Amino acid sequence: MKRNDYISWDEYFMGVALLSAQRSKDPNTQVGACIVDSKKRIVGVGYNGFPKGCSDEDLPWDRSGSFLDTKYAYVCHAELNAILNKINEDLDGCIIYVALFPCNECAKLIIQSGIKEVVYLSDKYKDTDSHKASQKMLEMSGIKLRKFISDKKIEMRF
Questions:
Q1: What residue ranges of the chain have pLDDT lower than 50?
Q2: Known catalytic residues?
Q3: Which residues contact 40 (CB under 8 A, 6 or more apart)?
Q4: What are the φ and ψ backbone dihedral angles of 86, each rounded to 5 degrees?
Q5: Direct distance between the N- and C-terminal alpha carbons of the chain, in angstroms, rounded to an integer
Q6: Phi/psi of residue 60, nearest 5 degrees
Q7: Which residues have CB under 8 Å from 87's CB, separation 6+?
Q8: Residue 56, SS3?
Q9: For 95, which DSSP code?
Q10: pLDDT score at 70
Q11: 152 Cβ contact list (under 8 Å, min separation 6)
């Protein structure tokens, strides 16, 4: 008899996104993304961090101050990295699982890449202009938005 307490596909893919987020060196916000094709195969994974070749020690992680003295001038978001890390030529029709609702810049990338659904865990910035612009563009483009809901707790130890 098969076991009944296995995780769903959504839980699995969001789990991969959350595990990927653990690679982020950002002291405040760790975001991961996982792109899945129509055959339920993972075709891209990413997390937020500085571009390759840019030292995590030499660039700022601060959230306030002048623009060039904050992380915002330098950080690549998880969605961007997942799209760039894709193993398929074509992301048309794929689903992206993200820990945090995409910002307006990531929304543009998602739309242009052909991804058709965004499954997100948190929308803690829903009152910001960036979130509102993102939601507007994603909805205008016919991209399905779905908040991830689960009561499962998964613990990992190495």
A1: none
A2: 79
A3: 9
A4: -60, 150
A5: 29
A6: -80, 145
A7: 43, 44
A8: coil
A9: E
A10: 93
A11: 7, 11
The conformation of residue 58, written as its DSSP 8-state character, comes to T
Q: How far apart are CA 78 and CA 28, in angstroms?
A: 14
Q: Decide the pairing of beta strands 32-36 and 95-100.
A: antiparallel
Q: Which two tokens stand for residue 34?
A: 């996982």
CA dist 43 and 135 (Å) reads 24
**H-only helix segments in the chain:** 9-21, 78-84, 104-113, 129-140
Decide if 25 contacts 78 (C-beta within 8 A). Answer: no
Q: What span, in angstroms and rounded, lies between the C-alpha atoms of 147 and 99?
A: 10
pLDDT in tens, 15-48: 999 999 999 999 999 999 999 999 999 999 999 9
What distance in Å separates the CA atoms of residue 140 and residue 6, rounded to the nearest whole number? 36
pLDDT at 111: 98
- What's at 5, amino acid-wise? D
